[in-house]
């Protein structure tokens, strides 16, 4: 089955995660929704190890609202996906990636006089499925491997 944009299945599965992180940086709820299945699950419980009480979020609309309210709208961010390993089997894929996520308060990111930031080195583990013409995240676990900077940035 052809993928949107002529991508291979592997590229299309990876594109789901790229859409997910770009949506955060752009504050784009529609792009975020395009990366998730309707019944998606996002597990943020591993953030307890860095003192953040996040839990399990279920359902595309709920996840998008959480993401846009916490990161996409109130912060200036960049999320960079690296070390992507993706294995496709039929209509599903398993993906692991390192995501470097830099966070500044809204409006402070582009100004060099503001150096107050919070940087995450996160590990993403995703189950991705073909959903019509797009591949979408069905389950995503985000685990911080390390953090640097001011955690108060995340209290919006």
TrEMBL record:
InterPro entries: NTF2-like_dom_sf (IPR032710), SnoaL-like (IPR037401). Residues 7-141 form the SnoaL-like domain. Gene3D superfamilies: 3.10.450.50. It comes from the Eukaryota. This is SnoaL-like domain-containing protein.
């Amino acid at each position: 089955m052809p993928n949107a944009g002529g991508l291979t299945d592997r590229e299309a599965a990876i594109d789901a995660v790229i859409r997910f992180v770009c949506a955060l940086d752009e504050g784009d709820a529609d792009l975020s929704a395009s990366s998730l299945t309707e019944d998606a699950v996002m597990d943020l419980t591993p953030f307890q190890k860095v003192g953040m009480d996040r839990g399990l979020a279920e359902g595309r609309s709920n996840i998008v609202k959480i993401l846009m309210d916490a990161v996409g709208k109130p912060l200036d961010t960049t999320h960079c996906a690296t070390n992507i390993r993706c294995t496709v089997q039929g209509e599903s894929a398993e993906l692991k990636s390192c995501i470097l996520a830099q966070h500044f308060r809204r409006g402070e990111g582009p100004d060099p006089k503001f150096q107050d930031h919070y940087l995450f080195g996160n590990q993403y583990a995703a189950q991705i499925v073909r959903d019509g013409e797009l591949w979408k995240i069905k389950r995503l676990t985000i685990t911080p491997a390390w953090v640097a900077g001011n955690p108060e940035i995340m209290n919006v």
